[in-house]
Amino acid sequence: MVHAFNISGTQMSVAGYISKSKSRGIYRYRRRIPQELRGIWGKLEQKMSLKTKSHPEALRRAAVVNTKFDEKAAQLRKQISGKTLPNRQVMEAAREILVKEGIHPQQIPKTKEEALRFFKTQDEWKDIWHNVLPGVTEVNHTPNDRGGWDAEYETDESNPWYQAYNLLTGEKGLSMVPTLQEATETYLTINAEDKKRTPHNQKKHEGKAYRAIRALAPLDTPITEINRQKARRHKDALMAANPTWADDTLSRGINTLSAIFNSAIKEYELSMTNPWTGLTGTVQKNADDLTSEDRGNKRRPMTPNEIANYKRNLLKINPQASLIGQLMIQIGCRTMEPAGLLIRDLIFDTNVPYIQFRYNRIRTLKNKNSVRDVPVVGDLLDSLRAYVSSIDTANPDAPLFPKYGRDGGMDAISATLRKIVNDKMGLKADKTCVPYSTRHSMKDKLRALRTPMELQYAILGNGKRTVAEGYGDGNPLAYLQQEIIKAEKLESWGK
User: Against a cut of 0.90, is the pTM above it?
Assistant: First the structure.
């Protein structure tokens, strides 16, 4: 009985780490890696199939896996003990103490030996040392054989003055120059606060950042060791190892590294230039040298016949995905924009029915220009009204399309729409035609109609937002509605 009780207690502690596959009914274990261990662990989370459909058995097996997880975490923490900096805020305060004393962060000695050399050659450092020391509490002093006293001081890791003393004397090899791991963690923390991504998208972003930085150099490498020459060699190596990569794929990787370095330079006040500045992934070629593969990196608009074919196939799939795809066609919106709508975002009790795109808990938007109101017209408006009447609208903050308004939902809707283009329309080999191509088609339609640029921007959510309430003599939504109606009737556009 005692044994059973212990197992039960363990099972209770792992219940939050198991989930059941909707398709196969098999349980799996999934647990996030603590942030401080992700670099040395080599992944963001631990996940594995428990190979059972029984909940009690899944709990038992998860308890075994979880014990191994905790053991590994404890082992890795021992490996990095003494290598990681104390609490970041404490260390920043310690650095400020030294800055006020006239010491630049990069002057801070990395070893005791280096500190002693400074003390022997620079008298002002002795004065600084004496200015810092009073902030550390003396706990004991004993006479020495030199006729003086040897003092012992507190070792309070949370005391900025103690950490300033450690930095100044080279104790523990502390340095305010961050490692690649520390720089990445700093970047991810600040970036997450600015972008406010969904948990799912934030996890994907973290994974991309760590993959980019791990490919560069070991995570314990000081960031100042990566100079322009190393950055260029890394870029060239990536290009050589991945010849089929699109230019924008390489550029995104380089841009991630650049963002990490920019963040570290700013937050740690480093006197170094960003080695990635100007190192885009684009390979410079003459137009005559471009191959069809090179040109294939860009998405093209759908032709009128392809749009008609796409619409026919959209009507054959589940209603939520169908409406998302139709919205993308009619108003040229991005996939995530309609997929992340809330019920409250449909404004239909007005002379000009419209959808409002706003930041919410489900998804973010590309930028502030993406925040906009766009009319919906014709058969699609009728279909949306019918759909809304068929669902529970008691909670206006609920997802309009719950199948996709969730973590992982954006990937799911993209896959569903891509399957139509690839399989139903037979365009799998054409990498330039994707569901997003409908946005390019709408751009071409508006250009063909000679729609004023400010109205184009207002519909598509890009460029400069110059549409004001005073556009013409009436409601700007009415002008947008007219342009969308004309675009719906257009039978030919583009090349």
Answer: no
